[in-house]
């Protein structure tokens, strides 16, 4: 009987210690590392949204079970414990491939075509895809696109845009023909199986046109690796409605003479 009382006493003591720890030991310092989409305050507000989130033991158990709440554009959050009262939230963003505009909302999707979230305003750095027809969509499920090959093209272009860190505002489809819009520059790519060479050459060009705030059009329909990229700038508009090519400047803002190789006059943007 005496041993039973001792065991019960030990158990009660442990429970008191655990209870005391639960109620009195709390997280007082939260830091955020990684993640480019949300602010630190947004991450903390989401991850620590539970009533007992700041209780050390509760959040420890929650984090070990992988139940830390994540915002729609966050893939996962790893929790690092610096002390019983201090944690670091390591944030890993999802890859956003683009968005489509639907009924006044911007519907964002990832590299697998899975719908992530709808927002009323466009996000900076995410291209808007236009000219494609799609069926119904549900959050956290893949888009139903009427032409799967077009969506494969979108995924390919999005991958290249991310890889070369190109700022593209819009990816426009006209049938299977593709046009990119970056700042004040319109780039016609046309219809191709792959756009790897085009984007590799275009990356440095678009960075220069944005930096120098250049405007014009680039036709890359027949582009092959090694070709020179020409930026055509708009000239004066004659009375009959046709457009003349104006004297142009290259990416280094130096005047260029009429090309002697038979190319149309325009801005020669070196790669």
Protein described:
The protein is of the alpha/beta class. The chain has two domains: 20-93, Ubiquitin-like (UB roll), CATH 3.10.20; 146-269, no CATH class. 27% of the residues lie in helices and 27% in strands. The protein has five helices and 13 strands. The chain has helices spanning 2-24, 40-47, 56-64, 148-163, 196-211; strands at residues 29-33, 74-83, 86-93, 96-102, 105-110, 115-119, 128-130, 170-174, 177-182, 184-190, 215-219, 229-231, 267-269. It has a five-stranded mixed sheet with strand order 7-8-9-10-11. A hairpin with a 1-residue loop joins strand 9 and strand 10 (184-190). The longest helix is centred in the N-terminal third of the chain and has 23 residues, at 2-24. The termini are far apart. The model is unreliable at 236-267 (pLDDT under 50).
Radius of gyration: 28 Å
Strand order of the largest sheet: 7-8-9-10-11
Number of helices: 5
Oligomer: single chain
What is the terminal-to-terminal distance?
A: 88 Å
How is the topology of this model organized?
Elements: H1 2-24, E1 29-33, H2 40-47, H3 56-64, E2 74-83, E3 86-93, E4 96-102, E5 105-110, E6 115-119, E7 128-130, H4 148-163, E8 170-174, E9 177-182, E10 184-190, H5 196-211, E11 215-219, E12 229-231, E13 267-269
Parallel strand pairs: 1-3, 7-8, 10-11
Antiparallel strand pairs: 2-3, 4-5, 5-6, 8-9, 9-10, 12-13
């Amino acid at each position: 009987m005496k041993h039973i009382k001792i065991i019960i006493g030990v158990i009660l003591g442990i429970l008191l210690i655990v209870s005391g720890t639960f109620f009195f030991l709390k997280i007082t310092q939260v830091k955020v590392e990684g993640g480019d989409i949300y602010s630190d305050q947004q991450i903390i507000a989401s991850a620590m949204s539970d009533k007992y989130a700041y209780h050390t033991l509760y959040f420890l158990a929650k984090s070990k079970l992988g139940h830390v709440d994540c915002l729609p554009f966050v893939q996962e959050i790893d929790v690092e414990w610096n002390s019983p009262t201090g944690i670091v939230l390591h944030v890993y963003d999802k890859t956003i491939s683009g968005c489509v505009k639907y009924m006044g909302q911007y519907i964002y999707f990832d590299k697998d075509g899975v719908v992530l979230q709808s927002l009323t305003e466009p996000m900076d750095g995410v291209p808007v895809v236009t000219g494609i027809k799609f069926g119904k969509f549900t959050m956290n499920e893949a888009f139903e696109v009427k032409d799967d090959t077009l969506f494969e093209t979108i995924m390919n272009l999005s991958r290249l845009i991310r890889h070369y860190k190109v700022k593209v505002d819009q990816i426009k489809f006209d049938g299977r023909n593709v046009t990119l819009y970056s700042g004040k520059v319109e780039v016609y790519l046309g219809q191709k199986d792959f756009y790897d060479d085009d984007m590799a050459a275009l990356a440095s060009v678009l960075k220069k046109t944005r930096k120098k705030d250049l405007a014009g059009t680039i036709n890359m329909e027949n582009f092959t690796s090694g070709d020179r990229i020409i930026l055509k700038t708009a000239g004066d508009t004659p009375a009959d409605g046709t457009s003349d090519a104006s004297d142009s400047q290259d990416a280094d803002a130096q005047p260029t003479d009429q090309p002697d190789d038979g190319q149309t006059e325009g801005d020669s943007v070196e790669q």
